[in-house]
Specification:
single chain, about 210 residues, mainly alpha, Rhopdopsin 7-helix transmembrane proteins, GPCR_Rhodpsn_7TM, transmembrane helix, GPCR_Rhodpsn
């Protein structure tokens, strides 16, 4: 999911740099936006599922094998794919309704959904609804799930009597936690800051952080 997410814009960016050509067709822009939403959302959903997996492994170790059986794993994976496809098609459906644009220039190195929506001359109600709905799907609920999982994990780890045991239990979460902080920290933090006082440079730096770094 990470490789596909990055591959939706990096090859095009490298080609643009080497040819000094910053033009993309409307169909190409919609295609790029669709894949960006699809794999970005999938990445997001999988991080949430991984937090749930860590929660079960640490807080309910004796029931872990029974609960996280192959059927549940496949079901969770299919749910991630379904939500990602829904998010991707929702963006495309809204974008295809636009009949005019205020400008043809996007202040970024790829077709970011929010920036494409902001260029539309159409009614702002639909744009705002889509933005808040997607924000809830991709931001609020997954982050709530991850925070809840880690609150329970920390609570359980602190009850372990030995420091070696605590370290061993929490060390299994370190890689996942670092990716969550990098992905959400750069994506949510900088974009919330830029929403208050938007600057194209800040937006591009934020995009570069969570799509490339």
């Amino acid at each position: 999911a990470d490789i596909c997410f990055t591959s939706t814009m990096i090859p095009n960016m490298i080609a643009d740099i080497s040819t000094h050509n910053r033009v993309i067709s409307y169909v190409g822009c919609l295609t790029q936006m669709s894949f960006f939403s699809l794999f970005g959302c999938m990445d997001d959903m999988l991080l949430t599922v991984m937090a749930y997996d860590r929660f079960l492994a640490i807080c309910h170790p004796l029931h872990y094998v029974v609960i996280m059986n192959p059927r549940l794993c496949v079901s969770l994976l299919l749910l991630c794919v379904f939500i990602s496809l829904l998010d991707s098609q929702l963006h495309n459906l809204v974008a295809l309704q636009f009949t005019c644009f205020r400008d043809v220039e996007i202040a970024n190195f790829f077709c970011h959904p929010t920036q494409l929506l902001s260029l539309s001359c159409s009614d702002t109600l639909i744009k705002n609804l889509v933005t808040y709905l997607v924000g809830a799907i991709l931001g609020f609920f997954p982050m709530l799930g991850i925070l809840f999982s880690y609150c329970k994990i920390v609570s359980t780890v602190l009850k372990i009597p030995s420091s070696v045991g605590r370290y061993k239990a929490f060390s299994t979460c370190s890689s996942h936690l670092s990716v969550v902080c990098l992905f959400y920290g750069s994506g949510v933090g900088v974009y919330l800051a830029s929403a208050v006082s938007f600057s194209p440079r800040k937006g591009m730096v934020a995009s570069l952080m969570y799509t490339v770094v």
